[in-house]
Amino acid sequence: MPEFSTPTHFPEGFLWGVSTAAYQIEGAAAEGGRGPSIWDTFSHEPGRVRHGDTGDVATDHYHRLNEDLDLLSALGAKVYRFSFSWSRVLPAGRGDVNEEGLVFYDRLIEGLLDRGIIPIPTLYHWDLPQGLEDEGGWESRSTVEAFGEFAAIMGARYGDRVSMWTTINEPWVLTYLGYALGLHAPGKASVDSAARVHHNILLAHASGAAALRSTVTNPSIGIALNMSEIYPAADTEATRGAAALAFDQLVSSFLAPLMGGKYPTGLAEYSAQWVEGAGVVEDGDLATIAAQRPDWLSINEYHPRYVVAPEDLDAVRVDGWVGEAGTPFTIGQRFVDVTRGSAPKTIMGWILEPQGLRDILVRISGLYPNLPLYISENGYAGADFLDQNGAANDPERVDYLRDHITAAGEAIAAGVDLRGYFLWSFLDNFEWAEGYMTRFGIVYVDYPTGLRTPKTSFAWYRGVIASNAVSGGPS
Ligand code: FCB
14-69, pLDDT tens digit by residue? Predict the structure, then answer.
């Protein structure tokens, strides 16, 4: 275990920011010429989202843009990471361009620049236009081409004002939750579908990055991958192998092709239905992906994971680990996620272990030492409320943020080239299948009225940004 010192100060120029995504905040789902996306369809299907919540209105950010820009300014954010709604710009996914949609993003980008905030848009944060889904969606290569066309339109329009671009948010989540487990849009539960999407989404990154590189002068292009450090929960060879396999499935199966044009070999042996075994890889594809290597990597991290090999499950149960064979994240049964029954968790069921953030940063930086890193999501889910004085106090979120930002600082002290931290999330918002009950914002949103109330964590984070420092150690 390396020794970590805890710096209070972050490097000069460290980019502090906040993150959001279009479908989670914009609302105005059928306004301004926007076409439907798979999340509109999915959220309107009974039983898909908790309480039947949808993104129809969400935080009404579309209509409250100036107010939200002023809040970002009051926070002192250096960066705002947001996503474009593809179907607001191309209502059918390709073809006719909706100028009104482009004007909305002009206003957003201009509003940020006027306030000295760097815009970092994500081209795809899960809201595929329904028109493309109807033609096969991410299972079809024609969607990969359509994504390139969309990227070229956005590059041509905003390339004079935006230089840092993220192609895709969390390919793992959209692939496995959307196509293998059916928990996210479009709600499919097929390993074969997931294998096709896994590969096509990497091709889409390449097609989007190539389009940006041909429409924007010197763009700086990243991709956001969800990651967790994966620890073996038992000290056996089988479990160490299971942890390595789980890491390959979660991280390397995306990062290795992006960085070096190869899928990790262990996975093909592990499941014949997985990408390489499923026959979706065509000649030249891996070279196409590797040719669009990202300039930097965004890491979305909330919690680490612990796994065991199935044969070790009974043994670790005795030590208080809880887990169920048969419910690993996706394909195959070679690793089982476990947690300590007594581990503190958020209302998402995510364990609270800040050192997981430090460890994953150190690990990725060890694998790819020349790749600049950003934390593009990290945050705390709570069931926040306004008290009788109209205040939103969220001390647990402050604890979480302080401990995780401290862990990020430890990673920097250990030599990681970490350039920024974008907290999830700016506003409470539509948390996908969890709906509105789960709140991640540092600004409380009263959904019936749209009223915004900065939480205690907002003031605390403003202090971190202003001083470029965090005081370490738990409270
Ligand atoms: C990530 C998503 C983001 C948000 C957080 C909590 O997986 O990218 O949109 O839902 O989780």
Answer: 999 999 999 999 999 999 999 999 999 999 999 999 999 999 999 999 999 999 99
345 within 8 A of 351, measured Cβ to Cβ: yes
Distance from the CA of 31 to the center of ligand 1, in angstroms? 24
Give the structural domain span for 244: 14-468
Q: Give first-to-last CA distance, the chain, whole Å.
A: 24
Rounded to whole angstroms, how far apart are CA atoms 330 and 337? 11
Known catalytic residue at 100: no
pLDDT digits 0-9 by tens, 245-286:
999 999 999 999 999 999 998 887 777 677 887 789 999 999
Q: Which residue from 300, 301, 422, 429 has its CB within 8 A of the most atoms of ligand 1, so it is best to mutate?
A: 300
Is pLDDT at 455 greater than 70 in this prediction? Answer: yes
User: How many domains does the chain contain in total?
Assistant: 1
Instruction: Tell me if 3 is assigned to some domain.
Output: no
127 lines ligand 1 (CB under 6 A): no
CATH number of 359's domain: 3.20.20.80
Catalytic option among 26, 170, 353, 431: 170
Residue 474 lies in a domain: no
CB 213 within 8 A of CB 221: yes
Ligand 1 midpoint to CA 290 (Å): 26
Nearest in space to 228 (alpha carbons), one of 296, 325, 329, 313: 329
Per DSSP bridges, beta strands 305-308 and 336-340 are antiparallel
Nearest CA to ligand 1 atom 9: 21
Whether residue 4 lies inside any domain: the answer is no
Is residue 327 predicted with pLDDT exceeding 70?
no
Gap from CA of 111 to ligand 1 centroid (Å): 25
From 25, 172, 377, 380, the mutation candidate for ligand 1 (largest count of ligand atoms within 8 A of CB) is 377
Question: Rounded distance, CA 395 to CA 373, Å?
Answer: 28
